[in-house]
Design goal:
With 702 residues, this protein is mainly beta. It has one domain (55-701). The chain is built from three helices and 34 strands. It has helices at 10-20, 78-83, 89-94, and strands spanning 72-77, 99-105, 108-113, 116-117, 120-123, 126-128, 135-136, 144-151, 165-171, 179-187, 191-201, 208-220, 227-240, 245-259, 290-305, 311-332, 342-368, 371-392, 418-438, 443-460, 463-464, 467-481, 486-497, 512-525, 530-551, 554-576, 579-591, 605-614, 621-630, 633-636, 642-645, 648-658, 663-670, 693-701. The strands form four sheets. It has a 22-stranded antiparallel barrel. It has a five-stranded mixed beta sheet with strand order 1-8-9-5-6. A hairpin with a 4-residue loop joins β19 and β20 (443-460). The chain is globular and about 80 Å long. The model is unreliable at 1-47 (pLDDT under 50). It comes from Pseudoduganella plicata. InterPro entries: Beta-barrel_TonB, Beta-barrel_TonB_sf, Plug_dom, Plug_dom_sf, TonB-dep_rcpt-like, TonB_sidphr_rcpt. It is found in: Cell outer membrane.
């Protein structure tokens, strides 16, 4: 790209006209959530030592302050993750405004926001095809400087998908100054964890820097027979090829294994329709069950800063995921007196997913109408393949021993009853353009459009996976500064998302369609150290897949029409000297066109609170607490059974003492009141959350 003046150019004019008319773009065929456009956002890790960030590019592609961003954004910083030992994505999202973590079984998790599943995950702004709709195992957070969560349909980052949220994992990057840290943790149920992080220059000129991050996590569990092990290793190299050009390359490997892992979970009611009440450690897994998840992620990134202020970036990524597991699914309805009435469904499952992604983009400024505006545009391509196979075991439908006193003793069968599986390929090409127009000093317009063409071919458990679709998705957002510290905003986008879920007969559901809008106020205080926001949102989505039941182990769905609306309040940062806080409160309504409530397994009110305080009388001491509350949820089951989870609050405490500038010791206690509750009602089975537990961490920093 050749340098050009800041005056309006034909390219900038064309982009401005396109962006200005984006809201009138015609609709067309679309792609599913796993085929959302892959967008590049340049985000450097920012460790402020507090609970907020001064800027984020996770919503509008442009590096804006949270107050300038026309959508709800929550940031979970490295400091908050360290303070409360948020070592997994589930830990982070469980402490994020408006997000619910649906742990349906021991090794698989769904995430929801604003009444819909979260299916948009990104790494440094580059979208990752979401193959399974849920996360296998736990994604370790030792690799990330912070995690941004943009709630609502993120029209500029993801052209299609659920209007829930986009989760952007922002990697730790190399630093020119030498820094290092080691943390050792010991906790309940023989939990052990070691983390190491070292970064610095690799040559005298400091033009070559590197960072190495590693973690090892293992232990038993409150769940009977269940234990886990997780190994994480990441290396990133950054080379300054010139003052304007930087080449970055990195690779991450995470391998997680578990024993005694559940497939499905506990039955929740007896044949007399009364609720099941088991020990908190109850586990339906057999003692021979195993699970292994392996994530490998590589990327190469080239950036160039032009003299006129424009910046170009190209990123090539390659990701692989492997799963190998032996499982026992237990189904049926037990008798209250005898505990009998359950049946076995053993299986061995193998899955291999490979993804290759390329993204190129440019960002800069241009003049129009005597004012300076910002523009970003780019294109991307991806290919994703999935090959998985289920080897069903002998003895499907055999009666299980009594649920009462179940100890996992069930003979391991041979897995040769029959096989089934998937083999398909997804490809997509997309392009995007977006601008932030400086209409007046207080008023800014953020608007753009992304267009995607996606093609799929193959078989998914006997059902054709063929798709060929294209879609243009517009987005518009407006901000207005009411005062130097307070901004009003609004945003709007449409939704179109073909689905892969099937009904009872195996037929693929029709696409979901809809629209979403958001209005709110944002404020920024103390030079950006404190951010607060309040939002009103409304989404209409038709034909959203909702699970009705299972045919054998295959889930089947029906489409529901739903309108989601609600209020979100979010606050993060430094409230007073030494007092950090992250807090959020959400009120949600979910109804069908007839006004009947839907998705009753999702809480309608949630509160998330984390706070720490550096004690003035003893500056080396920091104390803190978390409180997560949600109101009651329920499911209506066949035959008149109603499964209920009463409202509950979970409180955690922490304390850290800085022995000196390099060494500190911290203690964390989770679920202080030892509350017993179910992890989720997303499915018709569930299990209990962890009871009271504690850990101690010794941390050294250079």
């Amino acid at each position: 790209m050749s340098p050009h003046r800041t005056a309006l150019t034909p390219l900038a004019l064309a982009a401005a006209l396109l962006c200005g008319g984006a809201y009138a773009a015609p609709d067309g065929p679309a792609v599913d959530a796993a085929e959302a456009p892959i967008q590049t956002v340049v985000v450097k890790g920012e460790n402020t030592g507090g609970y907020t960030a001064r800027s984020s590019a996770s919503s509008a592609r442009l590096d804006l302050s949270l107050r300038e961003t026309p959508q709800s954004v929550s940031v979970v910083t490295r400091q908050q993750m360290d303070d409360f030992r948020l070592n997994s994505a589930s830990d982070v999202l469980a402490n994020t405004t408006g997000v619910t973590v649906e742990k349906v079984e021991s090794d698989r998790t769904y995430y929801t926001a604003r009444g819909f599943d979260i299916t948009n995950f990104q790494y440094d702004g580059v979208g990752i095809p979401f193959v399974f709709g849920n996360v296998y195992g736990e994604l370790d957070t030792v690799l990330y400087e912070r995690i941004d969560v943009v709630r609502g349909a993120n029209g500029l980052m993801s052209g299609t998908g659920n209007p829930s949220a986009t989760v952007n994992f922002i990697r730790k990057r190399p630093t020119a100054m030498t820094q290092a840290s080691v943390a050792v943790t010991a906790g309940s149920w023989d939990k052990r964890r070691v983390e190491a992080d070292v970064s610095g220059a690799l040559n005298e000129a400091r033009t070559l820097t590197g960072r190495l991050v590693a973690a090892y996590d293992e232990g038993d569990s409150y769940l009977d027979r269940y234990s886990t092990k997780r190994k994480v290793l990441s290396g990133v190299l950054e080379a300054k090829l010139s003052n304007a050009t930087t080449l970055t390359a990195g690779h991450t490997a995470q391998i997680g294994t578990s024993k005694g892992n559940m497939w499905g979970a506990l039955p929740l009611y007896y044949t007399d329709l009364s609720p099941v009440d088991l020990d908190v450690g109850a586990n339906t897994a057999a003692d021979w069950t195993r699970n292994r998840n392996e994530h490998q992620r590589s990327f190469v990134e080239l950036t160039h800063q032009f003299e006129n202020g424009w910046r170009a970036q190209a990123t090539l990524s390659h990701n692989t995921f492997k799963n190998r597991s032996k499982m026992l699914y237990v189904y049926g309805t037990p008798d209250r007196q005898t505990g009998l009435g359950l049946f076995a469904y053993p299986s061995r499952y193998d899955a291999d997913n490979k993804q290759t992604l390329f993204d190129a983009s440019a960002t800069g400024q241009f003049n129009l109408g005597g004012r300076q505006h910002e523009l970003t545009f780019g294109a991307n391509w991806s290919k994703s393949t999935l090959d998985d196979i289920s080897h069903y075991g002998q003895g499907i439908g055999n009666p299980m021993p009594s649920l009462n006193g179940w100890d996992g003793s069930y003979a391991e069968p041979t897995f040769d009853a029959r096989i089934d599986g998937s083999s398909y390929e997804d490809k997509r090409k997309s392009a995007f353009i977006a601008a932030r127009f400086n209409l007046t000093d207080p008023m800014k317009l953020v608007t753009g459009i992304s267009t995607t063409k996606a093609d799929s071919d193959g078989i998914q458990y006997g059902v054709a996976h063929y798709k060929s679709a294209s879609k243009s998705t517009p987005y518009v957002g407006l901000t207005y500064d009411l005062t130097p510290n307070v901004t009003a905003y609004g945003s709007y986008t449409t939704i179109f998302n073909p689905q892969s879920e099937t009904d009872f007969d195996g037929a693929t559901l029709d696409p979901m369609e809809g629209r979403t809008a958001e209005l709110g106020l944002k404020s920024e205080w103390f030079g950006g150290k404190l951010n607060a926001s309040g939002a009103l949102f409304k989404t209409r989505q038709d034909n959203t897949a909702e699970q009705l039941g299972n045919v054998g182990t295959r889930a089947y769905y029906h489409g529901i029409d739903a309108e989601s609306k609600g209020i979100e309040l979010d606050l993060s940062g430094e409230l007073a000297r030494g007092l950090q806080a992250s807090a959020g409160f959400t009120v949600l309504s979910l109804e069908d066109p007839a006004g009947q409530v839907v998705k009753t397994y999702l809480p309608r009110r949630t509160l998330r609170l984390s706070t720490t305080y550096k004690v003035p009388a003893l500056p080396a001491l920091t104390v803190g607490a978390t409180a997560n509350w949600q109101d009651d949820t329920y499911r209506n089951e066949a035959g008149g059974a109603v499964i209920r989870q009463a409202s509950y609050a979970v409180v955690g405490l922490m304390a850290r003492y800085d022995i000196n500038r390099q060494l500190s010791i911290a203690a964390n206690v989770n679920n202080v009141a030892d509350k017993k509750y179910l992890t989720s009602l997303y499915w018709s089975q569930a299990y209990y959350a962890a009871p009271r537990n504690a850990s101690v961490t010794l941390n050294w920093k250079y």
